[in-house]
Amino acid sequence: MNNELTDMGKYLQYEYQQGEMSKELIQSYVPFMIPQHDFDIIFNQPTPQQ
Predict the structure, then answer these.
(1) CA nearest 47: which of 20, 17, 3?
(2) What's the rounded mean pLDDT across residues 7-34?
(3) Residue 31 CB: number of other CB atoms within 10 A?
(4) pLDDT at 18 over 60
(5) What gap in Å lies between CA 40 and CA 4, rounded to an integer?
């Protein structure tokens, strides 16, 4: 499986990790700004910081 995010996906993941965006807000960007694939990666992979 390809775990590469699009550039927009990387940006949204960063914003989410900084607490700037909610999961619900990012969900609203699918599929217009990011593919479902990006959303799945952002929220299904464990975050590095515990």
Answers:
(1) 17
(2) 97
(3) 10
(4) yes
(5) 11
pLDDT band per the 50, 70, 90 thresholds, residue 3:
confident
How distant, in Å, are the alpha carbons of 15, 46 from that of 11? 6, 17
d(CA 37, CA 39): 5
**Tokens 């590095």 belong to residue:** 48
Which residues are CB-contacts of 4 (< 8 A; sequence separation ≥ 6)? none
Buried b (16+ CB within 10 A) or exposed e, 9-26: beebbeebeeeebeeeeb
Percentage above 90 pLDDT, the chain = 80
pTM: 0.80
Angle at 20 between CA 25 and CA 41, to 5 degrees: 60
